[in-house]
Each structure stands twice: as C-alpha cells, then as structure tokens.
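Quick illustration, no need to memorize.
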Amino acid sequence: MAQLRKSVLVLMQLTILFVCAVLNLADAQGLKVGYYEKTCPSVEKIVKQATAKFISRAPTLAAPLLRMHFHDCFVRGCDGSILLNSTKDNLAEKDAPPNLSLRGYQVIDGVKTAVESKCPGVVSCADILALVARDAVSMLKGPVPYWKVPLGRRDGRVSIMLDTLTNLPPPFFDISQLKSSFASKGLNVKDLVVLSGGHTIGTSHCSSFTGRLYNFTGKGDMDPSLDSEYAVNLKKKCKPSDVNTLVEMDPGSFKTFDEEYYTLVAKRRGLFNSDAALLDDKETRDYVKLQATTQGYTFFKDFGVSMVKMGNIGVLTGAAGEIRKSCAFVN
C-alpha cells in the first residue's frame, strides 16, 4: 500500500511538472506575461484604448486584424514581417495574393503611435499586433476575461512575398493538408479546429470558394459536401468569375465572436473547403459537434489557449531582430 501511495505521489508530481511546463512554454521561448512591467507598464491599457477607437467606428476591422496576426505568425514566425512595406528591390508579404485582402494596417500604425508617445523604442510591432488581435476580438463579444498575451517579441527585418505561398494554408486545403500545415508550425489538431473558429467573424471574397459551387472537380460540378440550400444562396451572391463581392463567413453573426461557426460547419454550411474538411477527421469532427451542441461551452477558453500557442511560433527574442520605430519600415 505504501508503495502504491508513493507511486501515485510521483505520478501527481510529474503531472504538475508537465502542466507547469506547458503553462511556461512562452517563458521558455523568451516571452512572458508582464514583459513590459518595468519598461512600459501601461502598454496593454494604451493598446486597448487605441484599438477601441478604431473598432468602435469600424467593427468589421476586427476580423482582418485577427487574420493579420495569423498570417504573420505562419510566415517567418510572429515577427511583424506582415507589416513591412515592399521596396523597389523586394516584394513583401503584404503584397502576396493571400494578403491583398487584409485590412487594418492603419490600426496597427495608430496603436504604435500611441504606444511610442508613452514608451518610445520599447514595444515591438509584433507584440502590438498580438495585443490588437486579442483586443479586437474581445470587442466583438469575444472571450472575457481576455487571454493573457505573453510579450517580448522582437521585430524581424525580412519580409518576402514568396514565403507566403509555401506557408499559409489556403481555403481549398483538405484535412490532411491542414493538419500537416499546422503541425509544421508546432500546432496540433485541436489547435487547427479551435483556430478555425476565428471564421465566426469577417467576410470573404467569392473567389475563395466559388470553385466549390461551380467547378469542384473540374467538370462543372458542385462540392457534394456543401448543403444544397446554402449553395443556392451562395450562387445568388457569387457568379463564377466574381472577384469583388464579399460574403459573410458566419451569416447573420459575422460581427459577433461566438460559437455559431461550429453550428454552421456541423450543418455542412462552412464557407470554405477547409471549413468542410473539419468533418473529415474524427478529432476535429467531434470538437465541431461538441461546440455546436453545447453553445460553445469550451470554445472561448480553448481559443485563448491556441492563440497563445500560435503567438509563440518562431518568435525573435533577446538581441535578435529589432524594435521598429515605424511598423511598415525597418529601422
């Protein structure tokens, strides 16, 4: 009996150590909550207030700001490289086809200006982008309390358009491709299905999904996994060659961060092939059904956890990179 108690005690200790290791993963990479406590203690308050000024006037900016953070982290890591302008000698990430529809750079610039006025040369653009993405989501009735964002990222000096083509998962990926893409960034299958929930806000151009409506296999057919009634409504909005029309990703709720996305996916009404693909894997399918049937019981908490993990991808810390004076230009 004594040996059994000893074994249980050891197991509990190992479990605690494992949990602590997971919770401190960001610290191990040089990031930590409260990183600017001494150098810019009011940074989160400044970012929140500055972000609110933009989102209160234009709530639809929240979705592209969240997407901007995702696109930044998946290409060269979360180093603010998505924010750099192209030069005469180099086409940057923001001019790559997947990023041409991004909006909200003026929000990042505005927030950066507000932060610089209080703490010049201290806070990176990469950290500001991570905070703005969190705050913008919260302003659309997203997770409260907010997830804590570990900080301490440095800004990268390199931004190459072609990098986006090999790193960003496109909307036509199937489940195997999606799992591989996320795994290459250190994200697991649960992170994939949780972060896909970000599609609960925002819009998409017709060109990102019309292949499912008109030419799914190259024979002028429709994706059989798409709900037929939903497809009829989409065809009314989008003709085969339409590249300008915007469609809500979460119809009727695209300005509210909620669990409705999973209800739609469960009904085969996910807009993209990558949304529908979540029903092709047991783990992702079970998560979709869980959130759809429990009104997103764990979604907000899970989203915060996965956002922190995503925000750790390939970060520059210590003496690496720089703290940009202006987010669109290297120093």
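The first strand starts at residue 203 and ends at 205.
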